[in-house]
Amino acid sequence: YFDKLKADNIKFTEFINEGVNQDINFLISTQKKGLLLYNSGEIIQLFKNKGFYGLTKHKSSYYAFHITGFHGNIISFSLKDKKAIKPYVVIRGLSKGIHQIDFIDENLYVTNTYDNSILIYNKIHNKKNIHWKNYDNIIYPNDKLLNGRSSSNYNHFNSIFRYKKFIYLFAHNETKKSSRNSEIYKLDKNNLNVIEIKKTTGSNGHNIYIDENQILFCKSIEGTLSSEKKDILQHKNIFTRGLSVSNKYLILGGSEIAHNRNDRGSSSGYIYIYNLNFKLLQKICIDKTQIQEVR
Length: 295
Fold this sequence. Notes:
It contains 1 helix and 26 strands. The protein has one helix at residues 175-178, and strands at 13-16, 25-30, 35-39, 42-47, 52-58, 61-67, 71-80, 83-95, 98-104, 107-112, 117-121, 130-131, 137-139, 157-163, 166-171, 183-188, 194-199, 206-210, 215-219, 224-226, 231-234, 238-245, 249-256, 269-275, 280-286, 291-294. The relative contact order is 0.14.
């Protein structure tokens, strides 16, 4: 399996507004160009295979969801000298529709997007080759689906974020099909009950970030990074997806809009690096791929 996940030499088109950022490192999941590392202004391909999405970190280990056909695996690896080392499969046989993954305390939460559910694996750090059905808990924030993804209650939960005593989920809601705008679900962290649902003004949205000052999310069809009150950043003809915030930078992913899935492999993806005042510091174009996630 990992023989197929080796990296290739690859060229990226890069546009720099204000020079290379020497103190920032992050991961980029792409549809066609594999799993990438941004390291102090340089982009390095860690794994070449297409179909990466969810990304997270626990202590010194990194975790990524990788599609393997009709199914997918969550793999783990370490980084040394700008290379991925010691990769292994953590969870196997998952749906190919997994989106964001994240650790909350010591447990891994997986957005089982096509099933309208969240899978929870307790204390999974250093465990290997777990079958996906061996989860410790599964929750359905808006009930089980009676007719698969055609069900009226299908939410396409794609993003998860913990803030204080609450867990927040972003419901994409397949707005273009359902005419339902995206929503933010707020859950109690202890009992995992839904305590609030907030509607947004966005369509087919992704990602959520919360701090003491704001809630940020992507209104993807509209091409914005938005708060509950206003659109903060606008990128015309770009599908915004992928959001990560540090104490100095905000990283936003975007892709040229391709409503036909068959066209997504020939469209370009973009990475935008901002400071926390939303001033653009760097814009990077990655040819012929969609950006799935940045973390």
